[in-house]
Amino acid sequence: MSRAFRRRGRLLAVLAGALAGVTGLAGCGIPSTGVVEAGEPGSGIRPATTLYFVRTDDGTLATVQRQGNVPVGAEGALSLLFKGPAPMEGKLLGLTTLLVLPPGSVGLDRTEDTLTVELGPDAGRLPPAAVDQIVCTATTAEALLSATSTPPAVKVTAAGRPQHGTLPDPAACPAVAPAKPVATFPVEQNP
């Protein structure tokens, strides 16, 4: 046999082996599945409602984001705020609220440039940080709804008496002051 003939034989053997491997992979017994429906379709970024709670360690405001399908505005945001932090937010993030009101004791009065949050007579006098919670939550929610215009000024009254917070104006609300975990748990290490 000539040297060229042996090279062609080896080349044909290699090609035959590669062809057999490709054919074997194509018919490996895994059926095609077609379209598999799993979960809801992608919807982009969902709007978040920013709620302002109070840190238990130093009394400053901290934000928590709640995801929703639509922006909720001041009324919806305040409804979430008055429910307080979720148990895990309170425990792990060290958050609390200074707002303890019976349901239905919050009303909103809108004018062109002012949103007044009216608390019922059972609210009493609010601590300044509680007023800040209401003002910042309502202002942030309204700003999300009115992206092209200035959100209304937010005022708080309790039994008709104006309530005052510590912030000079709503622009002083912490834009991003996310809550940070206060508790850490040891990680078990495998021996």
Tags for this entry?
4 helices; three-stranded antiparallel beta sheet; alpha+beta
Could you give the order of strands across the largest sheet? 4-5-6-7
Alpha-beta classification: alpha+beta
Main beta sheet strand tally, sense and closure? 4 strands, mixed
**Percentage of residues in DSSP E strands:** 15-25%
**Intertermini distance:** 65 Å
Order of helices and strands: HEEHHEEEHEE
Q: Please work out how many helical segments DSSP would assign.
A: 4
Shape type: elongated
Give start-end ranges of low-pLDDT stretches: 183-189
Mean pLDDT: 75
Summarize the amount of helix as a percent range: 25-40%
Total strand segments: 7
Radius of gyration: 31 Å
Give an overview of the whole structure.
- The protein has 191 residues and is α+β, with helices and mostly antiparallel strands.
- The protein has a domain of 125 residues.
- Helices cover 31% and strands 19% of the residues.
- The strands form 2 sheets. It has a 4-stranded mixed sheet, covered by helices on one side. Strands 2-1-3 form a 3-stranded antiparallel sheet.
- Helix 2 runs antiparallel to helix 4.
- The radius of gyration is 31 Å and the shape is elongated.
- The C terminus is likely disordered.
Brief summary of the model shown:
The protein has 191 residues and is α+β, with helices and mostly antiparallel strands. It has helices at 3-26, 73-82, 87-93, 128-145; strands at residues 48-55, 61-67, 95-96, 106-110, 114-119, 153-158, 161-163.
